């Protein structure tokens, strides 16, 4: 994972933990989900490539 992505994930988690506004909360969670999905895809791709070798 790239450092900037890791930092953003940590920042989003901190913001989500204290957010009181429902719309802002959902926006933050959606961004977090996008980042985590992208990371999962990269890890799965690396795992699949490893199995091919």
Please give the structural blueprint:
Elements: H1 3-18, H2 22-52
Distance between the termini: 22 Å
Question: Radius of gyration, Cα only, in angstroms?
Answer: 14 Å
| Tally of strands | 0
Proportion in helices: over 70%
Q: Give the amount of beta strand, in percent.
A: under 5%
List low-pLDDT spans.
Answer: none
Mean pLDDT: 92
What multimeric state do the chains show? single chain
Sheet bearing the most strands, described? Answer: none
Order of helices and strands: HH
The structural class is mainly alpha
Question: So how many helices?
Answer: 2
Dominant shape = elongated
Can you offer a commentary on this structure?
- This protein is an all-alpha fold and 53 residues long.
- It has two helices and no strands.
- It has helices at residues 3-18, 22-52.
- The mean pLDDT is 92.
In summary, what is this structure?
The chain contains 2 helices and no strands.
Provide tags for this entry.
mainly alpha; single chain; about 55 residues; about 90% helix
């Amino acid at each position: 994972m790239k450092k900037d992505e890791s930092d953003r994930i940590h920042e989003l988690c901190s913001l989500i933990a204290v957010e009181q506004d429902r719309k802002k909360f959902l926006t933050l969670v959606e961004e977090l989900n996008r980042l985590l999905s992208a990371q999962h895809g990269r890890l799965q791709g690396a795992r699949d490539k490893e199995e091919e070798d």
